[in-house]
Amino acid sequence: MIPDRRAMSAALLGAMLLLAGCTAPDAGRPDRQAEGYLRIVAAEDARPAEGADLELLITMTSAADVLLRRSAVRALGRLENPVLVEEIAHHLADPDTSVRSEAANALAQAVHRTDGESALRFLLAAIESEESPAVLGSLARSLGRLRVTGSDLDALIAAILDVSVDNGGPAAPAVMQGAALGLESVVRISGAEALGDRAAGRLGNMASYRGPDQIAAVRVRSVAISALRQAGRLSARTVELGMRDVATEVRAASAAGMSVVAPNVRTELIRRAIGDPSVTVPIAAINQIVREPQDSIRCEWLVIIAERAPTDAVRVPALDALSRPCPQPVPQQRALVAVASRLGSATDPGWLAPSRALVSLATVAPELADELVPFFVQHPNAFVRGYGARAAGLIGRRDLLGTLAADEAPNVRTIALQILALDGLVTDEQLVGHLASDDPQLLMTVAGLMEGSSLGFPAGSAAMTAFERISAMRRETTRDARRALLARVEELGTSALAGRMEPFLQDFDPQVAEDAARILSAWQGRDRQANPQAPDPVPLPTATELRELERTTVTLHMQRGDSIVIRPLPYLALTNSHRFVRLAREGYFDGLTFHRWVPNFVIQGGSPGANESAGDGPYTRDEVSLLPHWRGTVGLSTRGHDTGDGQIFINLIDNVRLNHDYTIYGVVTSEMDVVDAVVEGDVILRAEVRIGG
Predict the structure, then answer these.
(1) CA 602 to CA 597: how far, in whole Å?
(2) Which of 118, 140, 234, 305 is the most buried (most CB within 10 A)?
(3) 8 pLDDT higher than 50
(4) What pLDDT score was predicted for residue 185?
(5) pTM to 2 decimals?
(6) Does residue 107 register a pLDDT over 90?
């Protein structure tokens, strides 16, 4: 019997929070516990390598309170300092299982970007003596993350395999899940060749694992299939069985690996996947079709999906796939023209499918697209005009692109300038004119296109003026644009600008201050040193506010009429949970969009500029954890380590490759059907903060 979906959602949420050790402590606990937790978060936020903050974290790992010990151990791991390995290793013997699990994860995080040999011996010793399934699962998962080679790699794989077997059968569900995640990490980090026959065979068994914990069993099967596919070890039999699985996640993982199945069988599996009631499985099938030769049968499938799919989430990938010529072009072109011709008014939310159809049509039949493009480039919706610009570029309508290069929307101008620049149709004077914008993405684009400008110093001075203007905003999230502008100042400017550059030796952003020091050193012929002045840290919540966060949900009311309910996780990622709720309460998200949609990956939104480069002013740090990037978790968009920008993303599938690199600070608690239906450009009407709901 298939369980009730709402019951499954509630059980999944509980399992996720329990796994991560991020559930709130019992009500009525003393205030000093909340205050202690806030002290730990503040010390971790300082990213200490020594001094009082580091000493505080080490001291708190011995606190009597379990939550405080666990949080302090997690914080030590998040510092990603291999010097702390032995300090963290002591806590593998903690009397509490959640602390021991956290210690295993913290050891792997401490060596996350470096040689893992120093953590290996501690994890191998612990896995030999540990009895708790939860801790064994964390140990197995952490072992798989280590960057080691040779006999060390063989030893850790053997340990993961050994722990996954209990008395000749599968180990407990928590162990199996950890082992599957560990082996997947081995493949991803150490390479497919690291997975020997024994490990591949074990993953093959895991692909059909059934256990007493249904949610964990589904995770084991889907992760095992994904690992086998990455390693090139996925068998046709495993795919065929997985395609009949009751769990959507397993069917989707199997559909992604259909290339290993014989062509005649694959055709039937693709047909079955296209008719799957989920969103993720048909998308996986479309991705498979894209990899196939574009024969008449597959083109017919794509045309049918493009015309009849119930949602844009499935229709649009098929429209994109129709950008490849079909053996019989007439049905293909007719379908693309029909969908592109459905473009509605500015308030019509169904603009995405026509826009993507237009781009595909411009690729395969430019003469047919030519009549439609003007309607798109004049549309009130900036997203539509952006796609109109892409289509205009494909059909050679440089007249339309010239108009779009002066569009009121920076995103549209960016696209038009990039296309025109490819043909050398943008002058240096025009590029300098665009430096008057404050949009980070447009400024980065213009700064890149100005490389080698014939204007010389005047262009360098103009870049300096733009740099000074956006620097006055004191927004850390303008870093990429500011550094791109400095690159042009360095190339085209001279020491005549030294006086204007001098204040930026003390810039609030250390990377910008270093750039300024390098430029001044070259201009002045003497060594100049950066002395960055970090901005005041963003205040953490009070103990009272922390208690409130425990009972808070944020509801994103979508323009389409549905809502997405998110529960923040303050005991897992306080800094980012607090900011998310604060921004929602301030109305920051109201009217913004989910500007990025990658089918069977993520939706991302919350950018004031509806692009990857605009976000909330201060950066927030990474708060990675034990909680995997399962479907429905809410993550933090970044531009690198510790550069959270206030944008959010929601995982559409199990994206375990994001584990330990990207922060999770929330979980979707409403039905995921609404999330599955979100596509590029969908508008968040308002974000509502509820307490106690």
Answers:
(1) 6
(2) 140
(3) no
(4) 98
(5) 0.94
(6) yes
Burial track 616-638 (b if 16+ CB lie within 10 A, e otherwise): bebbbbbbbbbbbbbbbbbbbbb
Tokens of 141: 């998962």
Buried residues in 101-119 as b, exposed as e (16+ CB within 10 A): bbbbbbbbbbbbeeebebb
Position of tokens 């030590």? 76
Alpha-carbon 132 to chain mean position: 32
- On the question of pLDDT at 468 being above 70, the answer is yes
94 neighbors 68 (Cβ within 8 angstroms): no
Stretch 117-143: mean pLDDT, rounded?
Answer: 98
Q: What share of the chain is helix, strand, coil (3-state, %, to 5)?
A: 60, 10, 35
- Show Cβ contacts of residue 522 under 8 Å, excluding neighbours closer than 6 positions: 490
CB 169 within 8 A of CB 140: no
pLDDT at 22: 55
pLDDT in tens, 207-221: 999 999 999 999 999
Average the pLDDT over 4-27 and give the result.
49
Closest C-alpha among 77, 75, 74 to residue 85: 77
pLDDT tens digits, 405-441: 999 999 999 999 999 999 999 999 999 999 999 999 9
Q: Which residue has the tokens 């395609």?
A: 243
For residue range 267-321, what is the model confidence (pLDDT) as tens digits? 999 999 999 999 999 999 999 999 888 889 999 999 999 999 999 999 999 999 9
Cα–Cα distance for residue pair 647/651, rounded to 1 Å = 13
What integer pLDDT is reported at residue 1 of this predicted model? 34
Q: Could you tell me which of 309, 365, 377 has the C-alpha nearest to residue 337?
A: 365
* Contact (Cβ atoms closer than 8 angstroms) between residue 173 and residue 212: yes
User: How many C-beta atoms lie closer than 10 Å to residue 356's C-beta?
Assistant: 28
* DSSP single-letter state for residue 568: E
Nearest to 98 by CA among 41, 181, 25: 25
Alpha-carbon distance of 48 to 472, in angstroms, equals 28
Task: State the chain's maximal CA–CA distance in angstroms.
Answer: 77
Q: What is the DSSP string of 477-522?
A: GGHHHHHHHHHHHHHH--GGGHHHHGGGGG-SSHHHHHHHHHHHHH
**Which of 675, 593, 680, 584 has the alpha carbon at shortest distance from 634?**
675
Distance CA 361, CA 322 (A): 8
CB 110, CB 122: distance < 8 Å: no
pLDDT, average across residues 64-84: 98
How does strand 633-638 pair with strand 644-651? Answer: antiparallel
Q: Which one, of 96, 55, 85, lies nearest residue 72 by Cα?
A: 55
Which percentage of the chain shows pLDDT scores above 90?
91
Residue 548 CA, distance from chain mean position:
27
Could you tell me which residues come within 8 angstroms of residue 656 by beta carbon, excluding any fewer than 6 positions away?
181, 184, 223, 226, 628, 629
pLDDT digits (tens, 9 = 90+) for 241-251: 999 999 999 99
Distance CA 365, CA 360 (A): 8
Q: Which of 660, 654, 669 is nearest to 223 (CA)?
A: 654
Number of other residues whose CB lies within 10 A of the CB of residue 568? 25
Q: Both tokens of residue 304?
A: 């049918």
Number of neighbours of residue 291 by Cβ within 10 angstroms:
9
139 close to 626: Cβ distance less than 8 angstroms: no
CA 356 to chain centre: 23
